[in-house]
Amino acid sequence: MGVLPSPEWKVKRFKNPAQQRWFPGETISVASVRATNSYTPLQLAQAVATLANDGVMFRPHLVDYIENPITGERTYVEPRPLRP
Where are the beta strands (DSSP E) in 1-84? Predict the structure, then answer.
């Protein structure tokens, strides 16, 4: 699971109260992807696809079909929502 820093994340991440304070500059840093953002390209693609699908999150897949090497029969992989 990826990490997108926020004031709540910072409180959970650091035990020292001086380190838990959220500074205005950190919001800019997070927005420009220069902070402690930690997510994979697949997670970013999933987030963008979810926005494009009006909030419906589909299970990521990389193939259109699976082909049986013996029979040549193709089983198509249909996109399905992760949550109803």
Answer: 65-67, 74-76
pLDDT score recorded for residue 33: 60
**Structure tokens, 45:** 């693609």
Mean pLDDT of 48-52: 90
**Please, which residues have CB within 8 angstroms of residue 43's CB and are 6 or more apart in sequence?**
2
pLDDT value, residue 76: 92
DSSP annotation of 33 reads T
Burial of 10 from C-beta contacts in 10 A (0-12 / 13-18 / 19+) = middle
What global pTM score does this model have?
0.46
Residue with tokens 């926020």: 6
On whether the CB atoms of residues 49 and 24 are closer than 8 A, the answer is no
